[in-house]
Amino acid sequence: MRRQEGVGRREAERAAISRGDAAWGQGRGDAGAVVGGRQPLGREPFRAPRRHCADAGDLDVHAASVLPPPIPTAVPDQAHQGVPRSPAGLRVVGAQAAHRGPDPFRTWQEPWLLVKGCITGSVLGITVADWVASVVTMDGASMHPTFDPQQAERALVEKRCLYRYDFSRGDVVVFRSPRDHRELMVKSLIVLPGDWIQIPEKQEIRQIPEGHCWVEGDNAALSFDSRSYGPVPMGLLRGRVTHIIWPPQRIDRVDRKMPEGRIMAL
Amino acid sequence: MSGFVRRLGGIPWRSIAGDALSRVFLVAQAYCAVHVVDQHLCSLAIVRGPSMLPAMNLAGDVVAVDRVSARLGRVAPGDVVLMISPEDPRKSVAKRVVGMGGDSVTYLVDPGNSDASKTVVVPQGHVWVQGDNVYASRDSRQFGAVPYGLITGKIFCREAGAISGANILLYAWPHKLGHKQLAIVKFAEKDKVAPLLCCCVHGYIDVKFCKL
């Protein structure tokens, strides 16, 4: 009795597919029919029957979403009827194939998924670190009140300011050192291009050329900054520090601080 | 009305949303992969301008840029590099490296007007870059030695004439005549290229047209 019902339903399904009837077979709640369609891409659990249905993706979503019951009760009849184009028929044949033994494809499936996940994660991580924000570890006492030299603090560096190079005076910025391109330095950006700055040590007043900026550490005595190597090209800037995120008792925003009386802004 | 609502309820929203999310994720993955390859491995760029004649085309060349060797520090004098301009961080320029940190570089200060030359020692961590066409190039002679961190890639391959309809193959044989260089230039398609070349390089080099 059940077998005949199954046969009838499959014939109806085949007819529906050949008609291209999109609405057939969904929302019916038949016993064994999957309501709501097939598994989303990329999250299919490994199941041998689905792998063999290469054609299923070409067919209309709703018609192909009606899966046969997982237990192949009607298998012997359907295997003989063999219209190979029907997804139901193919799935049934595939279910048979799964019982033949361990699959060489299957043994590489899990490690391959792991590798794929790692590659995806690293690509996404690199893109986020380049365009959104990244983390930098502090070292040294040149920014003393802002960053504590005793603990290795970690700060959040935002990269959105690099899209149009819109920095403000007083930002704490991260940049590649002009003396060694592999090193990142963290200092305060004091002056923007075109402004004038007074350097008390050399008793001179300089204008910052186009495309350059002047950086100084908050702890003036211990800081190796623009007073030693001059204005820094803005192409070396790699981001702006917005928050301290480690250690937990120091979690806080990093605000702008301006030295008084040394700058004439245009 | 209720039939419509029932049909709305019958649509498999969850699977559609799941499908849409996974496709969006796929697109995002592809975009991120392109970004990583472009910024960290190898990239294509279009360079144009008179400052690297005759190595680079005036109207534009497609060049392949190697990002890995620049990041590893394997740039030597003689390489053509792509770097962020020290005068405007939003612009990239292509120049040739003439000296690395510690080298002593002798250069012509203003070759169009005088024979004066200067010698300078390149500071550590900096490079001295010059355009091949010293008459029409803004380079380290104007803005000084450039920190190595501004170099974004090394140009290793050039597709000549890939830009625009006029296929220009530019050959220049420089013959020194006093202070100016006389370049004899050969074009593939004279009628398309000649007016362009004339108005762009007039004043930098004198151009003689030969019948092919």
UniProtKB/TrEMBL annotation, chain A:
Q: Which residues form the Peptidase S26 domain?
A: 119-202
Q: Which GO terms describe its cellular component?
A: mitochondrial inner membrane peptidase complex
The primary site where this protein sits is mitochondrion
Compositional bias of type Basic and acidic residues: which residue ranges? 1-16
Q: Where is this region: Disordered?
A: 1-48, 64-86
CDD domains reported in the protein's UniProt record: S26_SPase_I
Q: Where in the cell is it found?
A: Mitochondrion inner membrane
Active-site residues, as the UniProt record annotates them: S142, K187
The answer to whether the entry has keyword Phosphoprotein is no
Keyword Phosphoprotein (UniProt): no
Mention any Pfam family matching this sequence: Peptidase_S26
**Gene Ontology biological process terms, A to Z:** protein processing involved in protein targeting to mitochondrion; signal peptide processing
Record's bilayer topology term: Single-pass membrane protein
Which InterPro entries does UniProt cross-reference here? IMP2 (IPR037730), LexA/Signal_pep-like_sf (IPR036286), Pept_S26A_signal_pept_1 (IPR000223), Peptidase_S26 (IPR019533)
Task: Please provide the record's keywords in A-Z order.
Answer: Hydrolase, Membrane, Mitochondrion, Mitochondrion inner membrane, Protease, Transmembrane, Transmembrane helix
Q: What Gene Ontology terms describe what this protein does at the molecular function level?
A: serine-type endopeptidase activity
Q: Which PANTHER family match?
A: MITOCHONDRIAL INNER MEMBRANE PROTEASE SUBUNIT 2
* Similarity remark: Belongs to the peptidase S26 family. IMP2 subfamily.
Please state what the protein is called. Mitochondrial inner membrane protease subunit 2
Source species: Miscanthus lutarioriparius
- Organism phylogeny: Eukaryota, Viridiplantae, Streptophyta, Embryophyta, Tracheophyta
UniProtKB/TrEMBL annotation, chain B:
Task: Note the InterPro entries from the entry.
Answer: LexA/Signal_pep-like_sf, Mito_IMP1_subunit, Pept_S26A_signal_pept_1, Pept_S26A_signal_pept_1_CS, Pept_S26A_signal_pept_1_Lys-AS, Peptidase_S26
Primary localization class, coarse:
mitochondrion
Q: Where in the cell does this protein reside?
A: Mitochondrion inner membrane
| Gene Ontology biological process | protein processing involved in protein targeting to mitochondrion; signal peptide processing
| Pfam families noted in UniProt | Peptidase_S26 (PF10502)
Which GO cellular component term is one of those annotated?
A: mitochondrial inner membrane peptidase complex
Domain Peptidase S26 residue range list: 25-107, 117-156
Under the heading Gene3D superfamilies, the entry gives: Umud Fragment, subunit A
Q: Which residues form the active site?
A: S51, K95
Write out the entry's keywords from A to Z: Hydrolase, Membrane, Mitochondrion, Mitochondrion inner membrane
Q: What's a Gene Ontology MF term here?
A: serine-type endopeptidase activity
Please describe the quaternary structure of this protein.
Heterodimer of 2 subunits, IMP1A/B and IMP12.
Family indicated by similarity: Belongs to the peptidase S26 family. IMP1 subfamily.
Question: What's its job?
Answer: Catalyzes the removal of transit peptides required for the targeting of proteins from the mitochondrial matrix, across the inner membrane, into the inter-membrane space.
What protein name does the entry list? Peptidase S26 domain-containing protein
